[in-house]
Amino acid sequence: MSKREFSHSRPLESGSRAALSYFWASACDLRLLNFVTDTVLTGDYGMRVLQDALDGKDGYKEFDPVKLAKNEPGPRTQAFRDSRQEFIEMFLSRAVDNFQVYVVEILREVLHKQPRILSSSKQELTLGYVLQFDSIDSLTKDWIEGKVASLSYDGFGDLEDWCQSRGIPILVPEGKREHIVELIATRNLIVHNRGIVDERYRKAVPATKFETGKQRALEVEDLLSAKDLLDYVVNATDGAVSAKFGLPQVEVRAEVSARSQKRWPRRSSNRPQPETQSLPSAPSEGGGG
């Protein structure tokens, strides 16, 4: 996976309902990521303050939770680092899942808006199937749901080709398609093979340096760059698809902000807040593919 090249994680001011669902799910994951990181770092910092106070020292004054983690990591930070592979796997898998669900949901919105897109699909409808419905509208809706369900099982390349052949833009930056494929392959590896590289992964990602039978190592940078890229694709795609097909719009950024304030009311605090970029990580042992 590549270094971070995008910083478009903020959603569009307005977008589709699929975009709202995507960015809200992303916000929930990011909040949990920050909560766990903050708990680890402040736990060590609190123990350092207590220890220095009991020993009559004031060395803790030179640190805040982030500086302490970087310079004199405590036991919680060390344990966190020891489990970073599993931790990153969980959040990377959720990020990719969220992206794949978005693509399926935006397709559903497009097809419900313009069901004629499916007119070129080769599909035989039996008389028995047709007679189940009391209107063309209900038949069309069921047909669309069936097609969407079928597409959800296709690989990203096949899905992208299907969309392009029907004029539905999935906007991936030039040269980044292989990174999307790699992210999805990595997610599948985590879910289906405990993150151990197999021949299917190597076939999907021919340029990978990871060997069959070895763990697909991940670093914090992999997670952050993945989130940036996926957010960028969703923002670009949603704007293009919404404009082309006239999809109903909602105030995405304002709604995510309102939901966040309701779910996580801000509490006044003068204590420095660790950011995602401060997630403790040990020296790199090889990340990226």
From TrEMBL:
PROSITE patterns: PROKAR_LIPOPROTEIN. Residues 256-289 are annotated as: Disordered. Residues 270-281 have a biased composition (Polar residues). This is RiboL-PSP-HEPN domain-containing protein. It comes from the Bacteria. Residues 260-269 have a biased composition (Basic residues).
